[in-house]
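Pipeline run #58 for the internal structure catalog. This entry was flagged by the ingest filter as a single-chain record with no existing model, so it goes straight to prediction. Upstream metadata was stripped on purpose; only the residue string is passed forward. Reviewer on rotation: M.T. Logging verbosity set to normal.
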Amino acid sequence: MENRYRKIWMIVTLCILSVAVVGLILYAVFADRQINDYKNEILAKANGAFEEIVDEVSGLGTKLIKVSVSNDAENTQKLLMDLWREAGTAEASLAGLPLSEETRAKLTAYFNTTGDYAKQLSESLLAGNPLEEKDKEQLAAIKETCRQIEEQLMDAWNKGYMAEVNLDAFIPEGAETQLVDF
């Protein structure tokens, strides 16, 4: 009789263990699917943010080109205000990118300084002051840095991956100090 109970307990124990193993396997499969879904969602958001920053930097470059060829003070003033807004939008779009703190700080500083400088020049034009040669040189330096940033971003975009953008590789030496104090 004792042997019979032992066999029954062994069978019950094996059934319980089998159910537990099957349950763990099912849990692992569903958890893996959930992890992949989360990964894909995060990747989609990062790629969307990357596409957004590429568009913003491209728009910033376009505005800088327009400012450099504009001869009308009123039009230049409006373009500079657009540049100020565009720089703020570009800076805000950095939030969705997985960038290192150093890279994020450099890009944020560039966008903020560019926007602030554009706003200062716009207000100066509105007050009746013409753009001076040093302002045009400064805008040319900002435009060149923007071109380099856009080039680096487009290179990463064309390679088909969301890359950590290494600004140290292409920002000219002392680019952060090129901007005039205002």
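catalog note: Residues 124 and 159 are 42 Å apart (CA to CA).
catalog note: DSSP finds five helices and no strands in the chain.
status: ready for reviewer M.T.
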